[in-house]
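Sequence design from tokenized structure. All designs in this work follow the same two-part layout: the structure record, then the generated sequence. An example of the structure record is given first.
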């Protein structure tokens, strides 16, 4: 006798073991990839910015180690040369070996999930790592999230492909790779995991199946990265004591950053569109974008690289109100030119800087209004979260990530308020063009939702005229006579009834033709009756059955029509066809789309 409980228990254990092992493997590689990527940026920056252009930019307290924040302004024209050469090298690498590595990376991962069955070419993470390290390290305005998302997701996709896992499993490992990469490089494991499952959709939806694998991957990656680098938060900020009276200020921040986020998104895609239309070889476009960034750096070197150091200084009150405004607007333009031209980098770091600086500027105004307020760092942190929640449609992940990146969990309530407001009023635009509204709109889940929709619709709702296509045939009618009747009525199937009028089975027109014309029983067609060829093993439908059940019977039995019977099963009240099912499905889809518009 089969022990069903044991079978289920063993399956569950093997299922858990499988995902734990796979997520740990992805996390190890993602964490190591983050460490290598961070090291590559540092080495490139030391050579190109510090030794060649003689600049020394500030770095966040969490990354300073034993160093003191030291600022040296070098030769601005050498900085222009540095960033331009970086753009040229990045362009040569990307467009010769992996065009998918162009841009901010995260969009490519989202596209791979929705449209390419989670598949990422193995060469993409390698080229993305090198090109992004060069772009950021030579002074391009970009962040780390896009590159590390492609690095982590690339390994997840590669592992699933090598193990010959299903498309569904490949997609989950792709997401786990993103969670591991983001969670480690930003030292925000929970936020990184949430980002990976939330960033796929611009509506209030997440990829629930990937949550646990992403969390495991992010924790492992964070541990691995910390072993090579540090586990400290990126930014060190003063402690904040919650005051309910401050919520009005944080709400203002949440609303105020939305138009700036809109400007950022529109500027970014306007720049990208212009570069796409530029009639020159693609390999030179990042160089042109970088050269334009270099011109900005001559006057505003603060927007080079990630600009995290300047954001850290703003948190401790070392940046004036006008400089905050210049950095915020300059970062929008410089990032759009760097990445929109085809350069390689992320949009998360620039978003934090833009939102944080703009909110800090507003915070400076609050200081003059309310004598209680002496520290603007809470407004900067809240602005960082609210801005990215509006621009990227990831409010939950942003709330957690900002708290983890700063170690300031006392700000969870203010950030939640501001980010939620920013997300709710920001509309449908997003920095990630490949996002879809919900799982319902994703090609990755389209088959699942066809099933879900059909399960919600009853057979009775698909029968437009139940009695119109019901033509009963007595079981003792000659087959040749039944064929004549079928030719006249042009109906796919007929319910066959006994002398008493009870339903005995179904007669399909195709079955009749096979008997009369060339079938094994052709010689007996004159004496055969309908009862001899009737199908009495076809399942019947009732008005309360779902269309999903009907579709599964259509597929299993290989038929295009089924009888719909009364509750007692003795009377046929209608014929349901495949056309009825798909027509009803199409109408329901239209209704749902109209409700979402």
């Amino acid at each position: 006798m089969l022990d069903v409980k044991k079978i289920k228990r063993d399956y569950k254990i093997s299922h858990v073991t499988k995902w734990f092992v796979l997520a740990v493997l992805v996390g190890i590689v993602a964490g190591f990839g983050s460490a290598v990527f961070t090291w590559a940026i540092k080495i490139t920056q030391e050579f190109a910015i510090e030794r060649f252009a003689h600049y020394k930019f500030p770095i966040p307290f969490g990354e300073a180690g034993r160093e003191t924040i030291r600022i040296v302004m070098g030769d601005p024209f050498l900085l222009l040369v540095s960033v331009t050469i970086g753009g040229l090298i990045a362009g040569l690498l990307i467009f010769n070996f992996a065009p998918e590595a162009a841009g901010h990376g995260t969009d490519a991962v989202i596209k791979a999930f929705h449209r390419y069955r989670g598949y990422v070419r193995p060469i993409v993470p390698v080229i993305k790592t090198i090109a992004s390290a060069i772009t950021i390290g030579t002074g391009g305005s970009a962040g780390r999230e896009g590159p590390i998302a492609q690095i982590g997701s690339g390994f997840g996709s590669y592992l699933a492909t090598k193990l010959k896992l299903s498309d569904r499993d490949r997609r989950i490992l792709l997401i786990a790779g993103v969670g591991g990469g983001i969670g480690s490089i930003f030292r925000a494991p929970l936020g990184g995991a949430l980002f990976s499952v939330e960033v796929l959709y611009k509506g209030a939806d997440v990829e629930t199946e990937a949550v646990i694998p992403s969390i495991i991957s992010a924790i492992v990656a964070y541990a691995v990265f910390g072993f090579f680098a540090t586990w400290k938060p990126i930014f060190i900020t003063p402690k904040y004591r919650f005051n309910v009276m401050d919520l009005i200020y944080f709400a203002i921040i949440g609303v105020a950053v939305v138009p700036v986020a809109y400007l950022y998104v529109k500027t970014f895609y306007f720049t990208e569109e212009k570069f796409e239309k530029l009639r020159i070889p693609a390999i030179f476009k990042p160089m042109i974008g970088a050269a334009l960034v270099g011109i900005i750096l001559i006057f505003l070197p603060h927007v080079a690289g990630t600009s995290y150091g300047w954001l850290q200084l703003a948190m401790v009150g070392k940046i004036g109100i006008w400089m905050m405004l210049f950095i915020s607007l300059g970062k929008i333009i410089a990032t759009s030119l760097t990445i929109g031209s085809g350069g390689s980098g992320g949009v998360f770091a620039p978003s934090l800087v833009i939102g944080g600086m703009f909110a800090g500027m507003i915070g400076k105004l609050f200081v003059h209004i309310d004598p209680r307020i002496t520290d603007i760092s809470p407004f900067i942190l809240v602005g960082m979260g609210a801005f990215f929640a509006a621009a990227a449609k990831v409010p939950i992940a942003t709330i957690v990530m900002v708290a983890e990146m700063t170690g300031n969990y006392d700000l969870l309530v203010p950030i939640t308020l501001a980010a939620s407001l920013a997300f709710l009023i920001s509309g449908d635009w997003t920095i990630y063009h490949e996002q879809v509204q919900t799982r319902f709109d994703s090609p990755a889940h389209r088959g699942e939702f066809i099933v879900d929709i059909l399960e919600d619709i009853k057979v009775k709702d698909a029968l437009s005229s139940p009695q119109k296509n019901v033509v009963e045939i007595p079981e003792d009618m000659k087959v040749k006579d039944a064929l004549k009747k079928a030719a006249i009525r042009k109906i796919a199937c007929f319910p066959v009834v006994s002398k008493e009028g009870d339903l005995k089975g179904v007669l399909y027109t195709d079955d009749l033709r096979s008997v009369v014309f060339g079938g094994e029983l052709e010689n007996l067609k004159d004496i055969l009756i309908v009862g001899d060829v009737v199908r009495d093993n076809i399942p019947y439908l009732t008005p309360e059955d779902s269309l999903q059940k009907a579709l599964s019977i259509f597929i299993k039995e290989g038929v295009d029509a089924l009888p719909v019977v009364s509750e007692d099963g003795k009377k046929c009240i209608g014929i349901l066809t495949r056309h009825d099912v798909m027509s009803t499905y199409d109408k329901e889809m239209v209704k749902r789309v109209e409700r979402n518009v």
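The radius of gyration is 32 Å. We note this feature because it recurs in several other targets discussed in the main text.
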